[in-house]
């Protein structure tokens, strides 16, 4: 993927304001974005939209982000997707849980737009985000 290409980004957060803010921010970076507010819808939308990146909240009612990530990792067509936790929980125990569930990165809310922009730029240009 060249650094000028756009990413397909799925934002999943049960908090509408948080999802909208991330959605608009990623749109400003020039990427294609879809968003939803629960785990089951996220699985359906991911299968149809085929995102390059998923920004996934952890603390959601019903199916939480850890369960959603595990389900996404079990879908053969979505093995390539970079799944990024975006959560209010930044402690080491939660970071281990997100890594075990299959997340590629862990961002703590509120997500700094500059960090997000840099991370997406790295993904666009084919580099691994740290």
From TrEMBL:
Instruction: List every position bearing 4-aspartylphosphate.
Output: 57
Q: Please list which residues make up the signal peptide.
A: none
Q: Which CDD domains match?
A: REC_2_DhkD-like (cd17580)
User: Any idea which UniProt keywords this protein has?
Assistant: Phosphoprotein
User: Which is a GO BP term held by this UniProt record?
Assistant: phosphorelay signal transduction system
Instruction: Kindly give the InterPro entries that the UniProt entry links to this protein.
Output: Bact_response_regulator, CheY-like_superfamily, Sig_transdc_resp-reg_receiver
Query: PANTHER family annotated for this entry?
Result: RESPONSE REGULATORY DOMAIN-CONTAINING PROTEIN, STRESS RESPONSE REGULATOR PROTEIN 1
Q: What is this protein called?
A: Response regulator receiver domain-containing protein
Q: What is the lineage of its organism?
A: Bacteria, Pseudomonadati, Pseudomonadota, Alphaproteobacteria, Caulobacterales
């Amino acid at each position: 993927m060249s650094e000028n290409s756009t990413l397909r980004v799925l934002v999943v957060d049960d908090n509408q304001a948080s999802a909208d803010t991330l959605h608009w921010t990623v749109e400003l970076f020039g990427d294609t974005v879809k968003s939803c507010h629960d785990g089951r819808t996220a699985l359906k939308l991911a299968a149809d939209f085929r995102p390059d990146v998923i920004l996934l909240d952890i603390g959601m009612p019903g199916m939480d982000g850890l369960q959603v990530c595990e389900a996404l990792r079990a879908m053969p067509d979505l093995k390539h997707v970079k799944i990024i936790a975006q959560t209010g929980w930044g402690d080491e125990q939660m970071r281990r849980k997100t890594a075990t569930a299959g997340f590629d990165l862990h961002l703590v809310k509120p997500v700094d737009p500059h960090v997000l922009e840099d991370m997406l730029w790295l993904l666009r240009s084919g580099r691994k985000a740290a």
